[in-house]
Amino acid sequence: MRYRKLGNSDLEVSEISLGAWLTYSGGVEFDQTRACTDAAFDAGINFFDTANVYGRGAAETAWGEILSGRPRDSYILATKVYGPMSDDPADQGLSAAQIAKQIDASLARLQTDYVDLYQAHRFDVDVPIEETVEAFQQLVDQGKARYIGFSEWTPEQIRAAVEVAGPDLFVSSQPQYSMLWQAPEAEVFPLCAENDISHVVWSPLAQGVLTGKYRPGEPRPEGTRATSESMGGFMDRVMTDEVLEAVQRLDPIAKDLGITMTQLALAWVLRRPEVASAIVGASRPEQVHANASASGIELSADTIAAIDDALGEVPVKGQTLAGWARDGVRRR
């Protein structure tokens, strides 16, 4: 496993990190969660990413119990704040009161005194950016969060936050990024590079599509994310025959290199120096090891060109967000 520096922090994170979005929030039994976590440590993964909203605390609670048995300095722990934590419409967002409330709740569930990285899960256009920045800075001053990051912010929002916070508060961005979703390269990557902000990317395998397990013209396999009601239309845009046919054209490229489709997709993401880590999910220990094995694979310029040719016009390149974040910035 290789490691990369996270922005302007002193954190060295594993190139592959383990995430808890669709797995450890309730979809995977506790024993499996523990087995996957143990496998992550075995594979050299030191970076674990979750959020308070995953299972409304369930994912944090599971990792709190599992990780409490390990030395706190043996792993880097990241969680997030923004999403609804109850049926009360007011129990969400990035107000100062909500951030203060949710960090304490997260720390209790995670059984730790601090998180290494606390991230704004989305941008809150209903709260002045100055209030949000001040609240995050206070957490750092209190020692409850070592560093601050954000997820799926627009360039306008990133500029506004950095303008208020200065160059040192934010160390990471968490955008969706994969062969099929290349949009961050246009504006978000260069803007964050200017401000020494690294990327911890989510969905680098496009929800499993880039593993090649879904084939054009065939029914979606039962028990996969593609048939899950909870995924709604999220999978539909990457489950078209056009996309699946393009993905199948990647298979001979991977075979020529002697690697799997999964390794190819993760190595492609990690080819960018702006990316500190790629978050992967796993429901079985062998998946953890398979994902971790992508670290250190370097793709030649010829391979990158072959991938571009295989994908053709399929990748999404002209948008800056995954589609559910809100534009705009509110100021005092």
How would you describe this structure to a colleague?
This protein is of the alpha/beta class and 332 residues long. It has one domain (3-311): NADP-dependent oxidoreductase domain (TIM Barrel, Alpha-Beta Barrel), CATH 3.20.20. It contains 11 helices and 10 strands. The protein has an 8-stranded parallel barrel, surrounded by 5 helices. Strands 1-2 form a two-stranded antiparallel sheet.
Q: How would you describe this structure in keywords?
A:
11 helices, TIM Barrel, 332 residues, 8-stranded parallel barrel, two-stranded antiparallel sheet, single chain, 34% helix, alpha/beta, globular
In short:
The protein is an alpha/beta fold.
Number of domains: 1
Total number of helical segments? 11
Give the beta-strand count.
10
**Regions with pLDDT < 50 over 5+ consecutive residues?**
none
* Large-scale geometry: globular
Order of helices and strands: EEEHEHEHEHEHEHEHHHEHH
* Class computed from helices, strands and strand pairing: alpha/beta
Under the CATH scheme, the architecture is Alpha-Beta Barrel
CATH class: Alpha Beta
Mean pLDDT: 93
Distance between the termini: 45 Å
The name of the CATH topology is: TIM Barrel
- Share of β-strand residues: 5-15%
Using the CA coordinates, give the radius of gyration: 19 Å
Biggest sheet: strands, sense, closure?
8 strands, parallel, barrel
The spatial strand order of the largest sheet comes to 3-4-5-6-7-8-9-10
Q: CATH superfamily name?
A: NADP-dependent oxidoreductase domain
The proportion of residues forming helix, as a percent range, comes to 25-40%
